[in-house]
């Protein structure tokens, strides 16, 4: 009988903890995200969507800037998860690759710029704690994460762009068949 009571307490406790997590989101990140989205959309309206589109178009013409600079700026300024909204300024054929590059950069940036993805900070801090225990400095690893991150997002962006193009070509061929 006592076992059933403890099992029931554990079961309801699971949902209570889920509710606490949800309330943390409602009072924590969600208001911030809503205000950030509103702010970015207001800036875009003030500057003009056509001008923002023009800058994004210029940044996406070059394959290197498309998968390094654009994701870097979006993650740095808009942080995770708002950074993916920069994808609305990217040509349709580049959207999957832009998303892949941006999502792949939200961890490597945290060592130098923790504001960009606070939810990933625990991973970096775990590594940092190990380095501190060894008496090693944190700066070099943060810079290396950042540089390797830029290389990785470029490679992922290019790879995803190639895969997306092949898949789109197959779709066109099968529609014409």
From TrEMBL:
It holds the Pfam family EII-GUT. It comes from the Bacteria. The keyword Protein transport does not apply. InterPro entries: PTS_IID_sorb. The chain crosses the membrane at residues 22-44, 64-87, 141-158. PROSITE patterns: PTS_EIIC_TYPE_5. Signal peptide: none annotated. The keyword Chaperone does not apply. Keywords: Membrane, Transmembrane, Transmembrane helix. This is PTS glucitol/sorbitol transporter subunit IIC. It comes from Tissierella simiarum.
